[in-house]
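User: Is it possible to get a 3D structure for a protein together with its bound compound? The compound here is flavin mononucleotide. I've pasted both below.
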Amino acid sequence: MTRVKNLDDLRKMRDQLQSKTNLRDKSEKPEDMVQIKVAMATCCIASGSRDTMNFFVDELEKRNIEAIVTQTGCMGYCYAEPTVEVTVPEKEPIIFGNVDTPKADEIIEKYIKGGEMVDGIIPVNYQKID
Amino acid sequence: MAYKMHLLVCGGTGCQASESAALVENLKKELEEQQLDSFAQVVMTGCFGFCEKGPIVKIIPDNTFYTQVSPENAGVIVSEHVAKGRRVDYLLYKNPEDNTPIAESKNMNFYKKQIRIALRNCGIINPENIEEYIARDGYLALGKVFQELGAENTIQVLKDAGLRGRGGAGFPTAIKWELTRKNEADQKYVVCNADEGDPGAFMDRSILEGDPHAVIEAMAINGYCVGATKGLIYIRAEYPLAIQRLKIALNQARNYGLLGNDILGSGFDFDIELRYGAGAFVCGEETALIHSMEGFRGEPTLKPPYPAQSGYLNKPTNVNNVETLANVPVIINKGPEWFNQIGTEKSKGTKVFALAGKVNNVGLIEVPMGITLREVIFEIGGGIKNNKKFKAVQTGGPSGGCLTEKDLDISIDYENLIAAGSMMGSGGMIVMDEDDCMVDVAKYFLDFTVEESCGKCAPCRIGNKRLYELLDKITKGKGTKQDLEILQNLGGVIKDTSLCGLGQSSPNPVLSTMRNFEDEYHAHVHDHKCPSGVCKSLMTYEIIPDNCVGCTACVRVCPVGAITGNKKEVHLISAELCIKCGACMERCKFDAITVN
Ligand SMILES: Cc1cc2nc3c(=O)[nH]c(=O)nc-3n(C[C@H](O)[C@H](O)[C@H](O)COP(=O)(O)O)c2cc1C
Ligand code: SF4
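Assistant: Yes, that's possible. Here is the predicted structure of the complex:
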């Protein structure tokens, strides 16, 4: 049984438990953090997009980056799957193609953390409608 | 590893009635079958408030808000949304103005002006899991009170915040706590009033169902501040789901050492017991509630002595409402300045209302004090149903009054509602349109108070009955000018001479409708007419001779044989026999029947 002994204990417990529910708070204000959308149609899944998504969620958390990872339907770049759209606060969204886990790692380290460009950007030829 | 997606399903009483429990089971099964159960998690939460369109499913992190989801929809939600990230359009809420789907709740008019403080966890956490409460700063306020603030500073925080009672009277919470604290005794009690007798109000139930730990934590804080080691929750037995969630929550809190002996190493002992009420409105009055818990008849007694002086078992007792308590932990965590910048000068924070009646969006809403009735009814409520005309809004339930068009722009707070001739009450808000007869509405509320009066004092027991009879007479077209005067006088006497708040406020619906809808009373009394066509006794069904072809269809359909006439001759309705059921009018193909 987990008896909470004092305030510090409670705080520690909260910090550990937070990762289980904080997605619900983060989703209220996605524009304040890094947003990643992983295309997740049947063909994308077949080319490994779910692994990519899982990798992003788990690694961003481990590396303490405030981010929210969602999935969307097909983005239309089926030649470059898995495709991922990354929006860093106050920057334009960028779409990357062929994002397997090593590529995802590079995106996190170089683009999200360092602000450097990474290969594999798909030029945007469409207007986003919300 | 944490789940990447959360499917929040409303598990409030309303949505459970529409099979949300089966929906949860089906979603879990589908996730398992499609091997997504380590990716997404199904969470049964408390009420989202949008009960009109339940059951609700909200998908995190993309915030999609599905309405009226049936257990059969589980398959498509999992295979389309969870698996492929495609929203299921036909389950989205449709904007009533242009029928376009709205995917996220924050873009719905119903939610735009709401601020959720008392309901902060409802619809977000699983109320049956203490860990989800702790993850959202649960019990942190209690720890801070023990270790950082102490009792007196905590009371000061509530004073600075300006928190007032949400159970009806709006009494400053900090002052009540201070009074109970100052009264010395070997034993003191804190009581949570979860009787919620106002017809149509269900905010207290929803808080207990959706976030029971918030109330438990607040009661422990309350106990520490006033020096009480025992808490009691008085809850009506008609709330089985709230009771069940409370029991689960109490057990979890005990297991985690957040109730019981030496809580969080503070040396403070505190535990809570449940007491069940039989659902009498008067037992929500604090002295009656205390007597009911003591095993006596649920009858009010004179104040003073106030419960803070001599309450349960004649010991100092602090009684607070569920919603009042739900505000306490978050005020302590976020500070009084955060709270008191919301609201008006004298009424701080938010109030939860149960919006009901003739509006498009009925449900539970939490709005900042100071919002106008117009914003609540026409923006959050989405306006009047079927494009009818707004007529009145009753706030404060059977103790409140009717407000009209001219009051729509007053900002809602305790003082303004009283100045306008109504009151905040516990947060019932019933909207009426042109088809409602105000005399009939007043009669409805009086019927309720006559039924619920405990009978202890004569003005309320006998006076309200007489008021009811007079109203009944008026709705039957037999009222006189003198009756209107008697209503006024008697109403005043009942208010002045009744023992408790029930009788002191029960004439309000009559007096306020008489003030605001004088014409309507006169129409009933002088012209024997009900302008809204509600009071049946005042209607007459007649045949328009020019239109009647003598087909005998109406003669055959009339259940009491009130229509006479031969084939191809103009028929006649006997006013004496007619029971005004309207069957003839529905049947007639030639528009030959009118109602006056
Ligand atoms: C007839 C009557 C019914 C009441 N019903 C309730 C009720 O159902 N729930 C409630 O919290 N307070 C009710 N009250 C108000 C209580 O007497 C008391 O003022 C309140 O519980 C104090 O808590 P608060 O200061 O947190 O509002 C009622 C009062 C009267 C006169
Ligand atoms: S006012 Fe009515 S409810 Fe209150 S004590 Fe008198 S009879 Fe009972």
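The first strand of chain A starts at residue 34 and ends at 39. The longest helix of chain A spans residues 7-26.
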